[in-house]
């Protein structure tokens, strides 16, 4: 016997192939699935669900043991309460398993027989050998028993217009902000319209995004810092989910256009890149990998300004990689300082002080992978270049600070000068000397490969 979904597909395609005009008005399978299974269950003789608890039938072979003694004891309060209706279940609970089209009639008859023989017991208590029923165990065998007693917790979202945390977002907009143009636009639509639902969702997500309230669209077991917003609807998604969502986002004007959704989302989170920003125009932002290092670089104004200065002074396209590398190295230094000080709110300008000089030394050892026992750097070239990058960041911060204030003797300017002096005098003793020696030893120990005679002969033939 053919199962219901296959029957529906066959009939639908027959009508469609015949060229009838009313084929577009045929109901969808999901809307008539319950009715189809209800008629099939009636034709096969499948018993209907009991309406009251008194209608539960317990077969005799379950009530008695082999010795003829009572095996089950019923809760009289449950059985006598015949007026209380049983929680109704949908007819789809009794639907046969959706099978392939080669299922025969024998299987169907077996299903009907098994369904009529399965007892449904509301509550059964086990009786001990001594006749005591004090130890009660709930042996409800009905899988249709309603067990969901959990209370639904509605997530609150921040309103875009009044910055309040709201539970029922659509009702709040309708009652409190009916004079807003965006609210009036979706109020003019039908309540069952898909466009109305999408517009409410976008207002809800934009409110969370503008107030930095990370409320994920989909529940996931991740930290709040791991969610990335969609650049079209401003909804927060996990990195893997964002890639799939961006392709089919309702507000995506060109789904066929390829782009990196995670990189665009991180750029959107930084919030200080205008349409004419040289970092955006040059394409440097899209070149950066979407990870915590790039996010720290994009959200720090000093690191971004270091990248802008380098791009303005180097117009060659291939030097964009150098600018990206410098920004990521400064971001790695900042993240290392945050781990050492256990302060995730630090910015680069906060650590450019003489008090943080030892912390900068320790962070440089961390990112260059310094071995204290062997007194060697795993990346000595990185350790050598970090001093130059830190001085470049100090010069950038000094320039920005002196443009903001007319006082040339401010505390920040004095700190920048003092830190520059410390780097010029003490950086060599702390970092540069050992890193330079490690680099020379690595070059000396690097094996030299001499080409074979056959390789030389081939190169000469290719040259001439």
The gist of it:
This protein has 464 residues and is mostly helical. It is built from 20 helices and eight strands. Among the domains are: 37-126, no CATH class; 272-464, no CATH class.
Notes on the protein architecture:
The termini are far apart. Helix 18 packs antiparallel against helix 19 (411-445). The chain has helices spanning 4-17, 29-44, 60-63, 76-80, 105-117, 169-176, 181-187, 194-210, 239-247, 261-270, 278-281, 284-287, 292-299, 301-313, 320-341, 348-351, 357-367, 380-404, 411-445, 453-463, and strands at residues 72-74, 124-126, 157-158, 165-166, 228-229, 236-237, 370-371, 376-377. It is built from 20 helices and 8 strands. Strand 7 and strand 8 (376-377) form a beta hairpin. Among the domains are: 37-126, no CATH class; 272-464, no CATH class. The strands form 4 sheets. The chain has a two-stranded antiparallel ribbon. With 464 residues, it is mainly alpha-helical.
Count of alpha and pi helical runs: 20
Proportion of beta-strand residues: under 5%
Which stretches of 5+ consecutive residues score pLDDT under 50? Answer: 76-148
Q: N-to-C SSE series? A: HHHEHHEEEHHHEEHHHHHHHHHEEHHH
Q: What's the arrangement of strands in the largest beta sheet?
A: 1-2
First CA to last CA: what distance? 79 Å
Net shape: elongated
**Sheet/helix structural class:** mainly alpha
- Biggest sheet record: 2 strands, antiparallel
Radius of gyration: 36 Å
The averaged pLDDT comes out at: 77
Number of strands: 8
Percent of residues in helices comes to 40-55%
């Amino acid at each position: 016997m053919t199962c219901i979904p296959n029957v529906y597909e066959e009939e639908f395609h027959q009508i469609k192939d015949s060229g009838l005009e009313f084929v577009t008005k045929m109901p969808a399978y999901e809307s008539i699935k319950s009715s189809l299974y209800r008629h099939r269950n009636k034709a096969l003789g499948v018993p209907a669900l009991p309406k009251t608890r008194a209608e539960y039938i317990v077969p005799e072979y379950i009530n008695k043991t082999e010795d003829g003694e009572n095996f089950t004891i019923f809760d009289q309060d449950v059985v006598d309460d015949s007026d209380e209706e049983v929680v109704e279940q949908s007819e789809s609970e009794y639907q046969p398993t959706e099978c392939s089209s080669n299922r025969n009639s024998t299987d169907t008859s077996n299903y009907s027989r098994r369904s009529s023989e399965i007892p449904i017991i509301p509550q059964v208590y086990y009786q001990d050998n001594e006749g005591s029923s004090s130890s009660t165990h709930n042996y409800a065998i009905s899988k249709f028993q309603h067990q969901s007693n959990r209370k639904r917790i509605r997530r609150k979202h921040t309103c875009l217009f009044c910055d309040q945390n709201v539970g029922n977002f659509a009702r709040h907009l309708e009652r409190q902000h009916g004079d807003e143009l965006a609210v009036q636009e979706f109020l003019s639509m039908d309540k069952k319209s898909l466009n109305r639902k999408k517009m409410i969702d976008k207002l809800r997500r934009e409110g969370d995004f503008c107030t930095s309230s990370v409320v994920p669209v989909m529940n996931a077991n991740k930290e709040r810092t791991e969610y990335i917003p969609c650049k079209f609807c401003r909804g927060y998604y996990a990195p893997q989910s964002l890639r799939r969502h961006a392709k089919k986002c309702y507000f995506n004007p060109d789904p066929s256009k390829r782009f990196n959704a995670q990189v665009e989302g991180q750029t959107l989170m930084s919030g200080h890149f205008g349409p004419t920003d040289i970092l955006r125009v040059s394409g440097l932002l899209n070149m950066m990998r979407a990870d915590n290092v790039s996010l720290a670089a994009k959200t720090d104004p000093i690191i971004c300004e270091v990248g802008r200065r380098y791009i303005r002074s180097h117009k060659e396209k291939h030097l964009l990689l150098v600018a990206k590398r410098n920004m990521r190295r400064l971001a790695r230094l900042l993240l290392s300082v945050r781990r050492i000080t256990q302060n995730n709110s630090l910015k680069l300008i906060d650590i450019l002080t003489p008090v943080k000089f030892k912390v900068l030394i320790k962070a440089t050892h961390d990112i260059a992978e310094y071995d204290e026992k062997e007194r060697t750097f795993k990346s000595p070239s990185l350790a050598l270049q970090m001093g130059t990058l830190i001085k470049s960041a100090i010069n950038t911060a000094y320039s920005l600070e002196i443009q903001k204030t007319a006082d040339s003797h401010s505390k920040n300017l004095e700190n920048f000068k003092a830190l520059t002096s410390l780097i010029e005098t003490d950086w060599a003793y702390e970092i540069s000397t050992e890193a330079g020696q490690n680099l020379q030893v690595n070059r000396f120990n690097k094996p030299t490969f001499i080409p074979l005679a056959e390789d030389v002969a081939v190169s000469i033939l290719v040259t001439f």
